[in-house]
Amino acid sequence: MRSGHNGLATETRKGENYSSFLRASVAILLAISIGFLLIGCIQDRSAEKTSLREYPVNSAQVFLSLEDAPFIGSPIDMKAAVDGLFIVDGAHNQIIKVDAEGKRLLSFGKRGRGPGELQSIAGFWPFKDEYLVYDYNSFKFLTFDHLGGLIDEELLNENPIHSESEFNIPITLDALSSKKLIIPTGGRKGSLFAIADRINGDVTYAGKAVGKAEPEYNNRDVTEALSGGEIPEVMLNMVLLSSSSDAIYSLQQTTGILEKYTHTGEHVWEMELNIPAQKHLFDRISDHNRGIDSDGKPRLFIYARAMDAREGGVALQLNMPDDQPFTIAWVPEDGTRIDLIKVEGITPDAHGFMEGFTVSPDGEHAYYLKRSTGMIFQFIWPL
Predict the structure, then answer these.
(1) How far apart are CA 106 and CA 96, in angstroms?
(2) What is the b/e burial string over 187-207, where b = at least 16 CB atoms within 10 angstroms of the residue's CB?
(3) Ranges of each domain in the chain
(4) How far apart are CA 24 and CA 354, in angstroms?
C-alpha cells in the first residue's frame, strides 16, 4: 500500500546531465556533512595517542564473479548477515541473497514503477523481522518479509532537512530501523546529520558542521575546484554514516575525524584517524587532479571509501595511495585504538567511491565488492 507522508519533501531533480563520474561520485557521497568543533564534556580521542596495530592478510579469493553467477547483473552494494550475503543488483533492481558457497537462496524486487517495483536502489537493510529497501528515483521505502514478499510501500513527499530546495531527496542515508532514518544534512542547521522518524515526522539534529552549509550543488563550481586541485566548498560537509544496534558512526571525509553517537544523537567520542600512509594523501589527490585533461577522471578528497558498523565497532575501507595495499581500519566501540588490516591480492579501483565492503556478523570473513568488474572478494577477518 502506498501512502503519502508529510514529514519528508519532494524534489524536482535537475542536473541529471552532469558528467557521469562526478555526478555519481559526489551525489552518492553527498550523504553528508562534517563537523568536529566539539566542546566541553565531549571525549576527544584525537587529543590522545591512538594505538595502531597491523594485521597482514596474505591472500584474498574471488567469492563471486559475474561469469560464475549469471543470476547477478550488476552488483552495487552488499551486506553480510548471519545466514548469508545480501547483494544489491543495480541492473535488475533486485536484492539477492547467497549462502556461504555463493549459491542463490533468495531474490526479490524487480524493475518498474508498480507496487514492489524499483527504479534505483539506494539503500538496503536486513532487520530482524523485515527487510527495508530505499528507492531513490521514486523516493519511497519498501518493506519486505523474509521470503521477499511485499509488506508495505510508502511514497515520501517531504524531506525534513531541506524541504525548500529542488535538490532535497537524500541519495545516501542509513536506517536505524524500518521507521527511523539517518539523513546527512550537508551542514544545515549547523549539524552533521538528522535522525528522522518517517512515521511521526520527528527530527533530531546531531553533530556540528564546519562552516556554513552550501545551499545547492553546482556542477561548474565542483568541476573547477577539483580540476584546480582544491576541495569544492559543497564537499566540506561530507560524511560517511553507518550504524549498529546501539551506535551511529560518522566519518568526516575531508578531516579524517571519526565520531560515535548514540541512537538519540548524543555525542560519545571522536578521534582523528591519523593513518601514517595517508599523511600526504590529499597532496597526491591535488597533484593528480591538476594534471588530468578534460577527459580525465578527478579523484575525490576522501579518507575512506566505505564503512560498515558492526557490533563492537566499525570497519572503514581506507582510501589509500596507489602504492599502498588494500587496507581496512577497525575501530572498536570504545575508540581506543585502530587495527589496520592490510590485504594482499586486492587492487581497488583508483577512482572508486562508495565501494561495497562488509564484515560477517560471526567475524569469520570480510567481503569487498569491486563495482567496476562486479567481482566480490572474500578474505579471512583476522580479529
Answers:
(1) 6
(2) bbebbbbbbbbbeeeebebbb
(3) 20-380
(4) 10
Question: H-helix or E-strand containing 152?
Answer: strand 150-155
pLDDT of residue 13: 38
Find how far residue 316's CA is from the centre of its chain.
Answer: 10
* Alpha-carbon gap, residue 23 to 187, rounded angstroms: 20
CATH of 20-380, one of 2.120.10.30, 3.30.300.30, 3.40.50.150, 3.30.360.10: 2.120.10.30
* Burial status of residue 130 (CB atoms within 10 A of its CB: 0-12, 13-18, 19 or more): middle
Q: Is 119 helix (H, G, I), strand (E, B) or coil?
A: coil
- Average pLDDT for 32-44: 38
Longest dimension (CA), the chain: 55
User: In this model, does residue 20 exceed pLDDT 80?
Assistant: no
Question: Which residues have C-beta within 8 Å of that of residue 369, sequence separation ≥ 6?
Answer: 75, 76, 77, 78, 355, 356, 357, 375, 376, 377
Which residues, 6 or more positions from 146, have their beta carbon under 8 angstroms from its beta carbon? 129, 130, 131
Compute φ and ψ for 272, nearest 5 degrees.
-95, 130
Strands 337-343 and 51-57: parallel
Q: Which pLDDT band, with edges at 50, 70 and 90, does 215 fall under?
A: low
Task: Note the pTM of the prediction, 2 decimals.
Answer: 0.85
Q: Provide the 10 A C-beta neighbour count for residue 1.
A: 8
Cell numbers of 380, please? Answer: 579471512
Residue 163: predicted pLDDT: 61
Q: What is the pLDDT of residue 232?
A: 87
